[in-house]
Design a protein that fits this description.
This protein has 263 residues and is an alpha+beta fold. The chain has two domains: 126 residues, N-terminal domain of MutM-like DNA repair proteins (Alpha-Beta Barrel); 114 residues, Orthogonal Bundle (Helicase, Ruva Protein, domain 3). It has seven helices and ten strands. It has a four-stranded antiparallel β-sheet, covered by helices on one side. A hairpin with a 2-residue loop joins strand 3 and strand 4. It is elongated, with a radius of gyration of 20 Å. The chain binds a DNA duplex (16 and 16 nucleotides) through helix 6.
DNA sequence: ACGTGCTCCTGTGTGC
DNA sequence: TGCACACAGGAGCACG
């Protein structure tokens, strides 16, 4: 589930629920979820400290403490939730941070594609993963320059977190639809105007989704996400939606609104 | 550089 | 109802 909007909602939730409380325990239930850190190191880095800030870069989360940052990536099924001391742990709890007073912050993840780690600086993790600039912060000009370097299908380029960090499968489809760009169009063959439009649309779509707390039923009727299934009706009424695979990912688009380029 | 396909893992939905 | 199978919104990797 987690795409950038979900991650941003989690970040805000963490700001309310996880900051300023003294950490008095860390339990790693499944160490395979750890990335670049041992259980010992995680415990030593966190216990006795407080989270002081919650940050996000693309879909990557950071919880700041004195001396570094707890990192969390939610993968496809990950979540971070705060529970009361008496509450039972969720079934798929992988890492549990206990606060003074009994409240606990739980990283849960059914499929274990997510990851928890610890870094001294956010920039070291961004460099390690070679993440591009955050999609909501990058300048439009830089977005255009970074995207048009690639010759691959535009959708693959949008999903490449090294180009720009934060665009997931659903929002790539939405932005392409709203921009009238075919998902298989070569990125380098798009005009600057088309890429600028993609940049503006992907941002608008992500922000709108954050606003409605990712409840797609509350999105405007013009959004593809409201009927993103094969055979669904194009919001502009032009055609029924088609499903293809691009880079192995399910891709829904409107064959009339998003014509392949003739070149 | 590019596309393809596999991998990590488990739950859910579909069709027989 | 049971069962097999396809599929899932992420991301890294090997291969040709």
């Amino acid at each position: 589930m987690p795409e950038l909007p979900e991650v941003e909602i989690v970040r805000r939730y963490l700001e309310e629920r996880a900051l300023g409380k003294r950490i008095d325990s860390v339990k790693v239930i499944d160490a395979s979820i750890l990335e670049g850190v041992t259980t010992r190191k995680l415990i030593d880095s966190l216990v006795g400290k407080c989270f002081t800030a919650a940050r996000r870069h693309g879909k990557q989360l950071f919880l700041q403490v004195d001396g570094g940052f707890l990192t969390a990536h939610l993968g496809m099924t990950g979540d971070l939730i705060s529970i009361e001391s008496e509450s039972p742990l969720p079934r798929f709890a992988r890492v549990v941070v206990g606060f003074q007073g009994g409240e606990r912050l739980v990283f849960e993840d059914v499929r274990k594609f997510g990851a928890v780690g610890f870094v001294k600086s956010t920039s070291s993790l961004l460099a390690n993963k070679r993440l591009g600039p955050d999609v909501l912060l990058v300048r439009e000009k830089e977005f255009v320059e970074r995207v048009r370097r690639h010759r691959k299908a535009i959708k693959i380029v949008l999903l490449d977190q090294r180009v720009v960090a934060g665009i997931g499968n659903l929002y790539a489809d939405e932005a392409l639809f709203q921009s009238g760009v075919h998902p298989n169009a070569s990125a380098s063959k798009l005009t600057d105007g088309e890429i600028e439009k993609l940049c503006r649309n992907v941002r608008r779509v992500l922000k709108r989704s954050i606003q409605v707390r990712t409840d797609f039923d509350r999105l405007p009727r013009t959004y593809l996400l409201r009927s993103r299934i094969e055979g669904g009706r194009c919001p502009r009424g032009h055609s029924s939606l088609k499903s293809i695979k691009v880079g192995g990912r399910t891709t829904i688009f409107c064959p009339r609104c998003q014509r392949p380029s003739k070149g």
